[in-house]
Design a protein that fits this description.
The protein has 20 helices and 8 strands. The protein has 441 residues and is α/β, with parallel strands linked by helices. Strands 3-2-4-1-5-6-7-8 form an 8-stranded mixed β-sheet, sandwiched between helices. The structure holds guanosine-5'-triphosphate and magnesium ion. The site of magnesium ion has 5 residues, from α5.
Length: 441
């Protein structure tokens, strides 16, 4: 998602890195590039224009902090504005005191309504909720079958009246059924049209009147470009939407238009669909998404995970050492152990700001590898662990023998170590180690 946009922005900001300070000129120049990148990603023209104006005003007014580089300072301003653009807070699915909570899914034909209903139901089931799905798409005979197939796949009941043409009637009787079942949620799948038309809107208005929903969610195909904005506006005007679900966002496609829906309508994005499978639905976090788009990595997620697992005191000590450029093999070993607690390294690396998954491509850290790293490091003398430069051929042979590994494995570990040491050096020099990430290093 948004890799192209992220790439463009990273490039833009990296050009600022060499500059001494922020000036009105380099702010404007950079923001011109940002605007171009947004338009290339198909962000709505007006949305991009207003966004840049706002950022420019704030960037010019910002007091230059000595601890931050110009690039960082501007990224920070852009990040804040982007979070707002994307909706600020994370929006939630309704949960009413009175059951069932009723949610109506609307949208154009093929946008992914039926699939999304099933995906949302699967999430709710995982939370232990009882869910009834209402098959209220009465126009396409196959629609009922589709929902029933999806429903049985996830163990959710489906209310349907095959052959019945009165959408509002089916919707209302489904609600009754949900009440009888004591269902926590009643999710209503509706019919779509190729375009917005009066007949569809009128039918949806009747269905709304019949089930009195707590939330109406619009499902929008993320690949439809600028039309996504117009579609959202039209639905919102007629039905008052509580949220949007953007589907088909897994590609690198131009999701910018879809992102503009929030700015254009004020309706928050609740979920993003990232595939055809039932699991392919992600809650939409504006702050995390903004970080991802800016190539800063999903710092929030990283911090959460780091806080859960990293021994903070040890991390703080390590941090002090790193500041003095003394990253040794002992730290490497400790680091590996911490990383192991946090999950697969590849996942973490993707989240680290400024690395974009490139730096540690070849570092292997499976369970077995960590065991081997341990054995190898423990076979070294203290002096060797602190000064790996002195590890010549005969020392390496001895260590391989002592650890039950091979010289190749010792060599590989030293290469990995060197790579990691350089990575930390780079992060530190670029000043790119954000506070949030400090606990990790
Ligand atoms: N790649 C991808 N495909 C999706 C996603 N969501 C839905 N689809 C696919 O899009 C197609 C249409 O999805 P449906 O859920 O049937 O769409 P709908 O809005 O119910 O369509 P109608 O009932 O005909 O109006 C199906 O092939 C889905 O598998 C998504 O997030 N990613
Ligand atoms: Mg459908």
């Amino acid at each position: 998602m948004f890799e192209a946009l992220a790439g463009r922005l990273e490039e833009t900001f990296s050009r600022l890195r060499g500059r001494g300070k922020l000036s009105p000129e380099n702010i404007r120049e950079t923001l011109r590039e940002v605007r171009r990148a947004l338009l290339e990603a198909d962000v709505n023209y007006k949305v991009a224009r207003d966004f840049i104006r706002q950022v420019e005003g704030r960037a010019l007014g910002v007091t230059v902090l000595r601890s931050l580089s110009p690039g960082q300072q501007l990224v920070k301003v852009v990040h804040e504005a982007l979070v707002e653009l994307l909706g600020g807070e994370t929006a939630q699915l309704a949960e009413s005191a009175e059951i069932p909570t009723r949610i109506l899914f609307v949208g154009l034909q093929g946008s992914g309504k039926t699939t999304t209903v099933a995906k949302v139901a699967a999430r709710l089931k995982k939370q232990g909720k009882v869910v009834l799905l209402g098959a209220v798409d009465v126009h396409r005979p196959a629609a009922v079958d589709q929902l029933q197939t999806l429903g049985s796949g996830i163990g959710a009941q489906v209310y349907a009246e095959p052959g019945e043409r009165d959408a509002a009637g089916v919707a209302r009787r489904g609600w009754e059924q949900a009440r009888k079942l004591g269902a926590d949620y009643y999710l209503v799948d509706t019919a779509g049209r190729l375009q917005i038309d009066e007949a569809m809107m009128a039918e949806l208005a009747q269905v709304r009147a019949a089930v009195d929903p707590h939330q109406i969610l619009l499902v929008v195909d993320g690949l439809t470009g600028q039309e996504a904005v117009a579609v959202s506006e039209a639905f919102h005007e007629r039905l008052t939407l509580a949220g949007v679900v953007l589907t088909k966002m897994e590609g690198d496609g131009r999701g910018g238009a879809a992102l503009s829906t929030r700015a254009a309508t004020g309706v928050p994005i609740l979920f993003v669909g990232t595939g055809e499978g039932i699991e392919a639905l992600e809650p939409f976090h504006p702050a995390g998404m903004a970080s991802r788009i800016l190539g800063m990595g999903d710092v929030l997620a990283l911090v959460e995970r780091a806080q859960e697992t990293v021994d903070l005191e040890e991390a703080a000590q390590l941090q002090t050492r790193l500041a003095k450029e003394e990253f040794t093999l002992e730290h490497f070993l400790r680091q590996m152990r911490e990383v192991r607690k946090m999950g697969p390294l590849e996942d973490l690396i993707k989240l680290i700001p400024g690395l974009g998954g490139k730096a540690l491509k070849n570092v292997a850290v499976g369970e077995k590898d960590i065991g081997r790293v341990e054995a190898i490091v423990l076979s070294m003398t203290l002096h060797e662990r602190r000064r790996p430069e002195i590890l010549n051929g005969s020392r390496r042979k001895r260590i391989a023998r002592g650890s039950g590994t091979s010289v190749q494995e010792v060599n590989r570990l030293l290469r990995d170590f060197d790579q990691m040491r350089r990575m930390f050096g780079r992060l530190r020099k670029g000043g790119k180690l954000p506070n949030a990430f400090q606990g990790l290093s």
